[in-house]
Amino acid sequence: MPHSTSAPRLGDLERVVMERLWEADQGEGATVREVFESLEKDREIAYTTVMTVLDRLAKKDLVTREREGRAWRYFPADTREALTAQTMRRTLDDMEVTDRRAALLHFLDGASSQEIADIKAALAEVEARVEAAEASPRGLRGRLRR
Amino acid sequence: MPHSTSAPRLGDLERVVMERLWEADQGEGATVREVFESLEKDREIAYTTVMTVLDRLAKKDLVTREREGRAWRYFPADTREALTAQTMRRTLDDMEVTDRRAALLHFLDGASSQEIADIKAALAEVEARVEAAEASPRGLRGRLRR
DNA sequence: TAGTTTGTACTACGTCACGTCGTACTACAC
DNA sequence: GTGTAGTACGACGTGACGTAGTACAAACTA
Question: What's the whole-model pTM score?
């Protein structure tokens, strides 16, 4: 049996390309040429290489694309933060950790105090959403599993 | 330049082998033969395949090994939870997320209420440690960065 | 002591993911 | 109609992994 890991992983260049898309002003996306020109400033690279990468990214559903004249305009399918979170969650799931509390504890153990604060803030935010969802019979964002 | 992602990734079989090591009664580790016999019950596999995998795992420092007669006894270098946490952290670092709060928020968004509880528990635990560290001039576990 | 077993070390092969392009072909602008 | 974007498709090299064979040494056994 071949090698297969559940969800889409990002290669180094793929990640760099995603960077450029994320950096492209506010959801405007970018064409191959635009990404190419951006990359070319930092390193030597062929136009077609960028094209291929963007293409693979699209196949992995990490980016979307829309026709723009003869060319395609690419958009990140998710924000950097959402993708990061997904990847982290996938790790947690794949590892089949039974003691999640311990795993999370280890995670926090390597966290900066700033990060701890961020987590607390995020936690408070989620709780607020849960309360809101409980208040209105069918709130619009109460997606808590189980 | 070749393909290179910072830290060690786990392949499918590698993960399965790690499972067996983690399951081997309380830090007793396991020999190639033991892992092999364990795996053989579930699927057909060659003794040498297991050996190779264990060997690669050792090269990646994911397992340790000690001589035991003519054979080697392998031990997981980290607990499943610690490794999971490391991998999650690496993801967070690699993605160069600037808005960690948002990323964490997305992460929590996909969490079960049980998991939320786990996080809270872990958070409380870390805070308790910080306080303890502040109380005694040089506590034994106050590793908070920044 | 010669044969069998157990274990390691080393080598190797197939496949897939990725980085990296080249080529062929098409639509549009002069 | 001759460049100039652009795309579509195919291809090659390398590294990671799954998979395992072979060679050879140590240890047990008849």
Answer: 0.88
